[in-house]
Design brief:
two-stranded antiparallel sheet; mainly alpha
């Protein structure tokens, strides 16, 4: 950006390949995939640290009941953000799906039971698992779901809550307002036996209902830019969404 405005902005391509053929519009919504980490759970963590409501050095064993085990004494919240918990990079939740029945509690328990592949804090391995855990901890701090907390704390204050959000695929009534919106397709999914449009591509996020710390966020190009620009301004000491020292701490390599 230059002077707080985009330097170049253009829209190319199609929302879907035939059939049907649909051109992209300015307000097209993309499945943001792993951008949900920095624009979702990671950003909310930053906000809560700035408010003094989240201690990055706190062990997971002192957070939510799911992690009340001595083995989590050595895993701290900042390790979730740094991908250094020692957990594996990925996890399979498909065994918990039977005839459209989802057992989220069982999925959470399965994640909490995963063995560490490395000693906590020793090796950085990019991991969806850590950000799933982070989201559940943030929900415990806020006392509300991740998507609701993000809308209140980040997206609504920035005026992007209509263009940056999670899609809860098990709540069709709540999603009626999205019928007229253009979603960019991701793929024809053999597991779900349909083309994924307006439904999170990531299977773990889908099995969790569409809201997760590692994926599930949908947004327009402009909404993503507004959030990124707001964070940049805070880093430069020109914004108040999040305290500048906190933003700089999160951007510092460790």
């Amino acid at each position: 950006s230059v002077g707080g405005e985009p330097f170049h902005r253009a829209v190319y391509g199609m929302a879907q390949e035939p059939p049907p053929r649909q051109r992209l519009a300015d307000d097209a919504l993309f499945d943001l995939a792993s951008l949900a980490k920095p624009l979702g759970a990671g950003l909310l963590a930053m906000k809560l640290v700035g408010k003094g409501r989240l201690d990055l050095g706190a062990p997971l064993s002192k957070t939510i009941p799911l992690f009340r085990d001595a083995r989590f004494d050595a895993v701290t919240i900042d390790m979730l953000l740094e991908h250094s918990t020692g957990w594996p990079a990925d996890i399979d939740f498909w065994p918990f799906w039977q005839a459209d029945s989802f057992d989220v509690d069982a999925m959470k328990a399965h994640l909490a039971s995963l063995p560490f592949e490395n000693a906590p804090g020793r090796v950085a391995v990019y991991s969806d698992v850590g950000f799933m855990a982070l989201a559940w901890i943030l929900e415990g701090v806020m006392g509300k779901p991740l998507d609701v907390a993000l809308e209140k704390e980040i997206y609504a204050p920035l005026g992007v809550d209509s263009d940056l959000f999670f899609v809860r695929h098990r709540e069709p009534r709540a999603n009626r307002k999205l019928v007229k919106r253009t979603f960019v397709a991701t793929e024809d999914c053999p597991k779900r036996e349909k083309r994924l449009v307006g439904e999170v591509h990531d299977p773990k996020a889908w099995l969790l209902g569409g809201v997760a710390g590692h994926a599930g966020l949908f947004g327009t190009i402009d909404a993503v830019w507004k959030v990124a620009e707001a964070v940049r301004c805070c880093h430069a000491g020109e914004g108040d969404l999040i305290a500048p020292p906190v933003v700089k701490r999160f951007f510092k390599r460790t």
